Amino acid sequence: MKIKFLDAKQVGKKLKKLMDSTEEFYWAIAWATDIEFANSLLENEDKICQLIIGTDFSQTNPEVLRVLQEVENVHIMQSNGNATFHPKVYCFVKGEKVYAIVGSSNLTKGGTYRNEEASVLIEGTLDDEPLQEILNAVSSWWDEGCRIEDDWLNAYKLRWDNDQQHKTALEKPLKIYQPNPDAEHSDLLFKTWDDYVVALHEAMNDEDETIKERLKTLERARKLFANGHFDELNEQQRRAIAGLTNGGNLGTDLERFGWAAFGNMDRARVFNDAIKNNGADTIKHISRALDYISFTGEIFENDYINFKREFMLAFPNGGVAIGCTTRLLAMKRPDYFICANGANKERLAADFGFAPSTLNLDNYWERVVEPIIQSRWWNEQRPANDERMIWNTRAAMLDVIYYEW
């Protein structure tokens, strides 16, 4: 037998060469995402003797499975929750000759081109025991697998679609958040839920009524959003949500809430004029932007990017500070967003490890939202006691800690 080491690029090139020059394929692959390679396999359908593809963790692209679905000798290994199907074995047979690529390379662009991979090419004959064992292993896995049925593939596609945004987040490089030297809560991201609640009360000197008033304001804002789109609200309701209260005349239903909390935007002249302008295109763009932020469920970075793009259409000439924008976000989804404004930005930036003057809409998600939703206290289970209202608004309520009283 001959044994040769292969890196990712060498694996890709060797696979293509062996697909052309051999007669039978026996493959067992943990994950497959390369649709181009799947189409090449389809062109060699008559050579496929046993091919099994894993589906654990929704890593395999369903379009690859759809390409190969009608190939009789292609099986899938469904996730069973007990063990991960993880082999990467590519066996080729031509007469008595056997070629086996075994290592870390999945059937992906990364595995066969970009990644740092380690595989070996074993060349021998059907009489070589190690190659017999490899072929037997592929056959055993293939027997455990099953054909790709429509109902299963449709269900798998739904799960795969839902998992993509999580994968995008997981693929981002790890960012280490280092508080500035003047940070007051350098351990903020590592606090338990109980520690977080204690920090809120300490910031308010245990004045529970102030916290309750803020919670009522956020709850009222959420109810306004629940009743319709932003452009369907009347001027008084829009002003309340936007933190524009200096003009008064909000009406008795709104004036009893503390709308000036979480960012008073009365001095933001461009923003002020836009919010008051009934029926203007500006309001429509703001409303469409907020529609990208779902009322319930998870919020992903791409949702924020879509929001930002649409919101900027409302103010093509600029003139709207980040406080105005994040105020609206915090009112709609106080569990994800905090209004970053002049009254809290300096202390917030110190704990999160950036210069306050550098915060803008382009980096707000990375610098503020990501550390919040990765923090220990944010991810703890929703309490069943009276603290559940704080939990529902736990990002926006950081303003209690960082506001310069």
Report what the structure shows.
There is one protein chain. 47% of the residues lie in helices and 11% in strands. It is α/β, with parallel strands linked by helices and 405 residues long. It folds into two domains: 2-170, Endonuclease Chain A (Endonuclease, Chain A, 2-Layer Sandwich); 188-402, no CATH class. Strands 1-7-6-5-2-3-4 form a seven-stranded mixed β-sheet, with helices on both faces. The longest helix is centred in the middle third of the chain and has 22 residues, at 150-171. The radius of gyration is 28 Å and the shape is elongated. The mean pLDDT is 94.
List keywords for this structure.
19 helices, 2 domains, alpha/beta, 47% helix, 7-stranded mixed β-sheet, Endonuclease, Chain A, 405 residues, 11% strand
Structure summary:
The chain has helices at residues 8-21, 35-43, 62-68, 110-114, 129-144, 150-171, 193-203, 208-226, 235-242, 252-255, 269-276, 281-291, 301-314, 322-332, 345-352, 364-374, 376-379, 388-392, 398-402; strands at residues 2-6, 24-29, 48-54, 74-77, 88-94, 97-103, 119-125. It has 405 residues and is of the alpha/beta class.
